[in-house]
């Protein structure tokens, strides 16, 4: 059993590394690093679905495997399509453009290394999907449907936040202003929050409620929300985005920061 899980880890790492090498090629050819996040999202969906449907002792995928595969595909298609639509209307992603500017002449090489780090850092996400799909129970349980509900809330909340921001930006009267409407009054990054929230579905499915110690591998699924929180809040999500917003919106964004929760939705202050 342990060998199977180690083999899965290696296969997931290789697959993600190759797919993100492809993302680097696209970024180098187009000059638009917005395609990086598009490809990353679809790559997670592809490798996640493959990991979920990985045969158990040569048997056909069971109901839980199909459910988990459907969850990651639904997330990937919704978010990937949204990022792709946004990328078609920009010349470059300002976050990655800032990295490239700092890297100077070494930008192509350092971008490749950065994207490979992103690929291998994403292994816990796909591995969480793998272990959730293999939760040792026969028929679907209540907690499987709870996992489905959690992901549905995550997708719906993220989609609502994205649509509210899009509507705000498309209104000419809001040019130069900071979006402070709807979910954006409660969190400075509600789209990131709901993206993170959706990843809670996999540990909910993976760790048996009735006998929490019966499937030790299930606890590996906790790595998914932990990793997603770290990367969104401390690495490629909030930090570069807020740095850009402070440059473009200045005091307006500082005031927004002062009255609005950074990540978790909370009643606005001030």
How does the SSE layout of this entry go?
Blueprint: H1 2-30, H2 34-52, H3 63-87, H4 94-103, H5 107-121, H6 123-133, H7 142-170, H8 190-198, H9 201-206, H10 223-235, H11 238-249, H12 251-259
Description:
The chain is mostly helical and 270 residues long. It folds into two domains: 1-134, no CATH class; 140-269, no CATH class. The chain has twelve helices and no strands. The chain has helices spanning 2-30, 34-52, 63-87, 94-103, 107-121, 123-133, 142-170, 190-198, 201-206, 223-235, 238-249, 251-259. Helix 1 packs antiparallel against helix 2, helix 1 packs across helix 6 and helix 2 packs antiparallel against helix 3. The longest helix is centred in the N-terminal third of the chain and has 29 residues, at 2-30. It starts with a helix and ends in an 11-residue tail after the last helix. 36% of the residues are buried. The model has no long low-confidence stretch (mean pLDDT 92).
Structural class: mainly alpha
Estimated share of beta-strand residues:
under 5%
Shape: globular
* Helix fraction bin: 55-70%
Order of helices and strands: HHHHHHHHHHHH
Distance between the termini: 55 Å
Mean of pLDDT: 92
Largest sheet: none
How many separate helices? 12
Quickly count the domains: 2
Residue windows where pLDDT falls under 50 for at least 5 positions: none
Q: What value does the Rg take, in angstroms?
A: 20 Å
The tally of beta strands, per DSSP, is: 0
């Amino acid at each position: 059993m342990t060998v199977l899980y180690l083999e899965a880890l290696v296969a997931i790492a290789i697959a993600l590394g190759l797919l993100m090498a492809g993302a680097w090629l696209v970024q180098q050819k187009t000059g638009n690093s917005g395609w990086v996040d598009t490809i990353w999202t679809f790559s997670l969906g592809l490798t996640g679905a493959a990991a979920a449907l990985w045969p158990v002792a040569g048997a056909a995928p069971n109901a839980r495997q199909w459910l988990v595969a459907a969850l990651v595909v639904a997330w990937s298609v919704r978010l990937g399509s949204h990022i792709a639509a946004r990328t078609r209307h920009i010349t470059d992603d300002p976050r990655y453009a800032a990295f490239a500017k700092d890297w100077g002449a070494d930008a192509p090489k350092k971008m490749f290394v950065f994207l490979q780090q992103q690929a291998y850092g994403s292994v816990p996400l796909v591995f969480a999907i793998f272990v959730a799909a293999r939760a040792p129970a026969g028929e679907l349980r209540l907690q499987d449907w709870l996992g489905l509900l959690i992901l549905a809330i995550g997708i719906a909340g993220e989609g609502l936040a994205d649509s509210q921001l899009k509507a705000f930006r498309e209104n000419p009267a809001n040019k130069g202003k900071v979006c402070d409407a709807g979910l954006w009054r409660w969190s400075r990054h509600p789209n990131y929050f709901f993206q993170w929230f959706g990843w809670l579905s996999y540990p909910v499915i993976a760790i048996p409620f009735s006998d929490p110690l019966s499937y030790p591998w299930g606890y590996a699924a906790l790595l998914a929300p932990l990793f997603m929180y770290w990367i969104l809040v401390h690495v490629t999500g909030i930090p570069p985005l807020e740095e850009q917003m402070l440059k473009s919106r200045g005091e307006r964004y500082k005031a927004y920061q002062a009255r609005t929760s950074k990540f978790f939705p909370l009643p606005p202050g001030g």
